[in-house]
Amino acid sequence: MELHPKYPHPAGKTCVAYSRCGKYLFTTGSNNLIRRFLAGVNDEPDTIDFSSCPLSLATSEDHFAVAGDDGVAYLYDLQGKSPKSILARSALPIRYLEFSPSGDEIAVVGDDTVIIVNIDSSSPKRLPFQGHALTVKFHPKEPLVTCSLQDGSIVILDIAEEPKVVSTLEGVTPSIPDQSDNRCSFAVFSPQGTSVAVPTKVFDVALYDSQAWVQDYRLTGAHTNFLTDVQWSPNGRYLATTARDGQVIIWDAVSREAVRKETVSEVIQIRWHPNENEISFTTESGRLYSCPAVPDGLPTPLGPPIHSAKKQRALEREMEDLQAEPQSDGLEEDDEENGDANGYDDLFVEQPRKRSKVAQTVQKFNPGTPWLNNKRYLCMNDTGYVWTVHQDSDHNTITISFHDESVQRDVHFSDPDRFDMASLTKTGCLFANSETGFVAMRFHAFSNDNWEFQIDEGDKIAAITLTDVVAVVATQRGIVTTFSVYGMVLDVTRQRNVFALAGHGRTVLVLRHFDQDRLVYSVEHFGDETHGPDYLISDAHLDVAPSELRTIFFGEFGDPCVYDHAGCLMTLTNWRSSQTQARWTPIFDGPSYSSKNGRQESYWPLGIVDSELLCIPLKGQQRFPPVPLPVTASLPLMIPGISEIESEYLCQRVMATQNTAQDEEELASVETALDKLLLRQFQLAASENRINKCLCIVRRLNQPRSGEAAVQIALHMDLTNLAEKIQGVLEQ
C-alpha cells in the first residue's frame, strides 16, 4: 500500500495521539507547535503555539497535555487553544506523560522527576526512582502501574495508597542511560489488563501474564533492530510495533503472526484509532502517516476488549480439530428444513400451539443454544461453558471449557446419555436429560463423590441448577428436589410450572409461570442441611414475559440477575433486607451501548465480574454465540436514559451496596470512588450555576475531605456564595 505523509513539523521528535473519543488527532514537534487534526479529514489542522520544544503528548476523554524541554507540563481542554492549568514544573525537561484510564490523573516523568498528578487538584503522588525513570504505564482497571527504568528493569507498583513494589522484571528490556534515546523500554497492559507487552533487547516483544508476571510467549523473527514503540489495538487482539529497522508491523496476538508490514524509516511513535481500523505514526523527520491497520478479511481490532489472546488461540486450535470430524447428515438436513436464516432452530423459547390452561402450555426455557451443525452449548457462565457435539445414534461428546485455564483444564468425554441440560460451577457440573429424567453430578477432579438420580417414570425435567452448596432439579409435574452438592436429598417441595432456575451459594432463584404471559419469582435460601429453605421472596411478579427471557444468573456478589431479548440486564437490589423493598434495577442496556459506540451488535451475558458485564458480542443479526465460543468481552455497566457520569455513579453505588463482605478499608476505598464521581457531577452543575443541584450532590458525599474538595472547586470557579452554602451543609 502506498503511504502518503503529512508534514506537520520539521525534523525532530514528533509525538502523536488520538483523543479517546476518536474525533481528534494531535501532533507535537520541534517547531514549538501543537497540531490538532480532525481524524479522518483532510482539512488543515488547528495550530497551537507552545512555550518550548514539546517532548511529550497525552490525551484523555476531555483533555490533552503537553510537556517540553522547559520542564513545564500543561493541561488543555480537548478543543482549547490555551492551557487550562499547569500540571507540573521541573528544573529539567519533562519527556513523558500518560493519563490514567479514568483521565483524572496523569503520570509525569522527567529527567529529575516521576510523579502522578490529580488534574483537578494538581496534588502530586511522588513515585520512587526519581531521576532515572523513563515511563509510567497504568493498568486499565486496577491501581497498578509499570515503571520502566534506565537500567532496563521494569518495576510494577501498587499505587492504591503509598506506592508499593509488587514485582520486578529484570534483564528483558534494553538499558537506556540517555533519556532522550528513542528506543522504547516499557511494559504496556492490554486493554483487558490480563497481558503485558514488553519490548526486549533482542528486538522481540515478550508477552507476560499480568497476574503471575511470567512470560507466556514472544512475537519474534520480524524486527532486526531496537523497537521504538509498542501499542495494543483497542480490543487487545493486535499489537503494533515500530523499530529502528524501518519496519511498521501489525501482529495478531492470537495467531502470533505478523499480518501487515510497512517500511517507513525513522518511525518513533504509533497509535491506534479508538473507533476505526486505522493507525497513525510519526517519524523523526516530522512526518505523519495515517492508514488502515488490519487487512480486510481478518478479525476486527475494535470492539470490547478480548479477555485473553492465549485463551482465544487455544479455542481456535480446538475448533480446527473439531471441524475435521465427520458431520451427521441427518441433523444438518433437519436444520435446513427448519429454514432459519442462520441455521438455528426457529425459536429459542418453544411457544405453545394453543392458548389454554397454563399447566398445559408451559414454555420450555433453554439456558444454552439450539443445534447448529451438530453442535450446541448446554450452558455458559462466568466460570466457563459446556458444549456438546452429536456423533451418531449412540452417543454425543461433551466438552467443559474454562475461562481461566490456570484453575482447571478442559474436560472432554463421551456422552451416551445424551444430556441436554447442564449447570456449571468451579468444582463440578450437573447434567440432565430432560426427556428421560436422568440426572448426573460430575466433579471436575476425579472423585468417588459423583452421583446420579432418576426422576419418576412419565415425568420430565423442566430446569436444573447447581451451586457450590446445593443442586436443584425441577420437573414438569412440579416436583422440586434439592440435594446437597454430594447428593444428599435436603428438601422436596411442590412448585408447579417451574420455568427456570439459577443458584449461588445457598441461594436459589426460581422462576415460575403465573399465567401464559407473566412470570413470578421466588428467592430461597438454605441456611444449613438440617431443614428446608427460607423463602426470602415468594412469588413476586417479574416484569419479563417468558418469551422475552434470554438468561438468568447471579452476579459476583450473589445477587439475582435477569437478561431479556431486548438487551436489558436487571439486578435484584435490597432483597436481603425486606421483600417489600426488593426491586429490579437496570444496570446495562445492550442497544444503547452498541448505538453509543457505533456498533451493530448484541450481547450474550455470562456474568458480572469486577463490576463489569462479562459477555459474548454477537455481530449483526446473530442471535446466539457460535461454536467455537468467540473471545469474551467485559463491558462497563450503564443505566439507560441518563447521562454517562450519572450512570457510572449509580452503577457503582448498586455494586457497592451489593458487596456485603467489605471491610473498613475496602468500604473507605469504595466511598472515595463514589465521591469522585459525585464531584465530577458537582463540577458540571457548578459550571452551569445550578446551586441547588450542587447542594444536593454535596449532601450525598460520604467523606469530609470530599466536602472540602467541593468547597475548593466552588472557590476555583469564583462561586463564593456556593462555597459558603456548602460550608454550612458540612457544618450541619
TrEMBL record:
<feature type="domain" description="WDHD1 first WD40">
    <location>
        <begin position="6"/>
        <end position="288"/>
    </location>
</feature>
<dbReference type="Pfam" id="PF12341">
    <property type="entry name" value="Mcl1_mid"/>
</dbReference>
<dbReference type="Pfam" id="PF24817">
    <property type="entry name" value="WD40_WDHD1_1st"/>
</dbReference>
<dbReference type="Pfam" id="PF20946">
    <property type="entry name" value="Ctf4_C"/>
</dbReference>
<feature type="region of interest" description="Disordered">
    <location>
        <begin position="295"/>
        <end position="345"/>
    </location>
</feature>
<protein>
    <submittedName>
        <fullName>Minichromosome loss protein 1</fullName>
    </submittedName>
</protein>
<dbReference type="GO" id="GO:0006261">
    <property type="term" value="P:DNA-templated DNA replication"/>
</dbReference>
<feature type="domain" description="WDHD1/CFT4 second beta-propeller">
    <location>
        <begin position="365"/>
        <end position="640"/>
    </location>
</feature>
<dbReference type="GO" id="GO:0003682">
    <property type="term" value="F:chromatin binding"/>
</dbReference>
<dbReference type="GO" id="GO:0006281">
    <property type="term" value="P:DNA repair"/>
</dbReference>
<dbReference type="InterPro" id="IPR022100">
    <property type="entry name" value="WDHD1/CFT4_beta-prop_2nd"/>
</dbReference>
<feature type="compositionally biased region" description="Acidic residues">
    <location>
        <begin position="330"/>
        <end position="339"/>
    </location>
</feature>
<keyword id="KW-0539">Nucleus</keyword>
<dbReference type="GO" id="GO:0000278">
    <property type="term" value="P:mitotic cell cycle"/>
</dbReference>
<dbReference type="InterPro" id="IPR015943">
    <property type="entry name" value="WD40/YVTN_repeat-like_dom_sf"/>
</dbReference>
<dbReference type="InterPro" id="IPR001680">
    <property type="entry name" value="WD40_rpt"/>
</dbReference>
<dbReference type="InterPro" id="IPR048591">
    <property type="entry name" value="WDHD1/CFT4_hel"/>
</dbReference>
<dbReference type="InterPro" id="IPR057646">
    <property type="entry name" value="WD40_WDHD1_1st"/>
</dbReference>
<keyword id="KW-0677">Repeat</keyword>
<dbReference type="GO" id="GO:0043596">
    <property type="term" value="C:nuclear replication fork"/>
</dbReference>
<feature type="domain" description="WDHD1/CFT4 helical bundle">
    <location>
        <begin position="656"/>
        <end position="731"/>
    </location>
</feature>
<keyword id="KW-0853">WD repeat</keyword>
<feature type="repeat" description="WD">
    <location>
        <begin position="220"/>
        <end position="261"/>
    </location>
</feature>
